[in-house]
Amino acid sequence: MDRSTQAKEGKKKITEVKIFPVPFALGENQGNLTITTNTPSKPSEKQIINQAFKFHSQGNIPAAIKYYQCFINQGFKDYRVFSNYGLILKNLGQLKEAEKCQRKAIELNPDFATAYSNLGNILRELGSLRDAEVSTRKAIELNPDFTEAHSNLGIVLRDLGKLQEAEVSTRKAIELNPNYAMAHSYLGIILKDLGKLQEAELSNRKAIEIKPDYADAAWNLYGLSNSIENAEKIINQCLKMDENHLQAKLTLSALRLHQGDQSLFDQLMKSNHKDHPFMRSFKWVSTLPKLPKLFFHRWALFDDMINKSKKERPLYEFGVWRGISFKYLIDTFKKGFGFDTFEGLPEDWHQEKQGKYSADGIIPQVDGAKFIAGKFEDTLPRFFSKSRPLASIINFDADLYTSTLCALNYSKPVIDEDTILIFDEFIINKNWEQDEYKALNEFCCSNNLSYEVLALSYMSKQVAVKILGL
What would the mean pLDDT of 169-175 be, rounded to a whole number? Predict the structure, then answer.
């Protein structure tokens, strides 16, 4: 599953861009009203709604909640109230209640495009990506010029691995609003996923041009760096925009560590950030006999490993998803084997639910490729019951500990001292020590082997190794 994970942590991962909900335009408000338990007469519907909108527009969320709840508890019905209150609940993390409010707004006004867009955002956070796509497309159907909905649809489509469609949708948002900085930045992420690196850089720079303090766009730009010096320069730019950008601050310590300066790393390891997954990842790297080569995006790491590989051998990949990485790699090797259920995760992966990252059963059509569909425990025993050619590169992108360990055990006959193993979710994630990292170490321990780390990318979470002792 070749997800170009742009530093997301857990379910939300450290992402560069958030989906901002689309609030209802709060109108003018007249007068003031205070709701107390001893109010002699009940305030009118209009009075309550005006006060709710007023406080919401001022950012006084506790007061807005009080008036929205008063409105709803008295049995009044207004689609704007349910939609706006749903936004507040979403921001408070009460996603199920927020979903109910947006659905109530739609029930009251089936043509209210904003509620469909807001519902799409909520469903995305709940992990219901297909429903999120349907709801967001409905918003666009009702309002074809709904800029934010086009942008949000691009985000959902990227989550679904539909990168070309995501690019089209995000470009539509920019067409509607050329100064929409967030859309430019998110387009940069999609273009990077597609391997269009120069275009991705231009998009992120455009976002910063529009919004000079856009730290997340600078963070995205860091992920396009071509040298450690360039990377540090951009990280410092990001921190100048936002001195509290935690990912940038922690990453700066790693960049300096790779250049022989351990002082910031040591300082952070004594702070309350020492248990952050970034710092745990950096600490593991610091314990290696030799610091590996550092890259900033998957494509550069792939290129370097391709140059080091036995190109006459085939490629193997465990976890194909929609085949973006596989297609990139097989362009060199001409022959390859890919394994995936093509129906998503076979079991829950921490916060990610079973079935996430589904390719909808669609198997990519790639010249020189043979894809084997099904669970690894079912397909690999049959496949490796026959003699198979030694591997040039094996790309492990199965995410799960169990799936990765299964793939390692069955692929052992095609691994030798020249085979390069690339793991796609090895470090940085919240629970990284329990996933591919754990699988590789158990595999080596069980077979009395060790490994040398050749290269890594903190941004894409990849680690490339060679097995020693075969």
Answer: 98
Q: How far is the C-alpha of 127 from the C-alpha of 146, rounded, in Å?
A: 23
Q: What is the mean pLDDT of residues 434-448?
A: 97
Residues 6+ apart with CB under 8 A from 219: 7, 16, 238, 245, 247, 248
Nearest to 250 by CA among 234, 233, 264, 229: 264
Buried b (16+ CB within 10 A) or exposed e, 118-136: bbbbbbbbbbbbebbbebb
- C-alpha–C-alpha distance, residues 157 and 124, integer Å: 10
- End-to-end CA distance of the chain, in Å? 28
What would the two tokens of residue 107 be? 């029930």
pTM of the model: 0.88
From the centroid of its chain, how far is CA 442? 28
Does the structure show a pLDDT above 90 at 13? no
The answer to whether 221 touches 208, Cβ cutoff 8 Å, is yes
> CA 335 from chain center: how many Å?
30
Q: How many CB atoms lie within 10 A of CB 59?
A: 8
CA distances from 156 to 24, 101, 135, 169 (A): 21, 21, 11, 10
* pLDDT per position as a tens digit, 255-309: 999 999 999 999 999 999 999 999 999 999 999 999 999 999 999 999 999 999 9
Tell me how crowded residue 272 is: count the other CB atoms within 10 A of its CB. Answer: 7
What CA–CA distance (Å, rounded) separates 348 from 356? 8
Contact yes or no for 319/337 (Cβ under 8 A): no
Please state, in angstroms and as integers, the Cα–Cα distance from residue 432 to each residue in 236, 278, 403, following that order: 27, 10, 14
Strand partners, 396: 318, 423
The sheet with strand 462-468 has its strands ordered as 293-295, 450-457, 462-468, 420-423, 393-396, 315-318, 336-340, 369-373
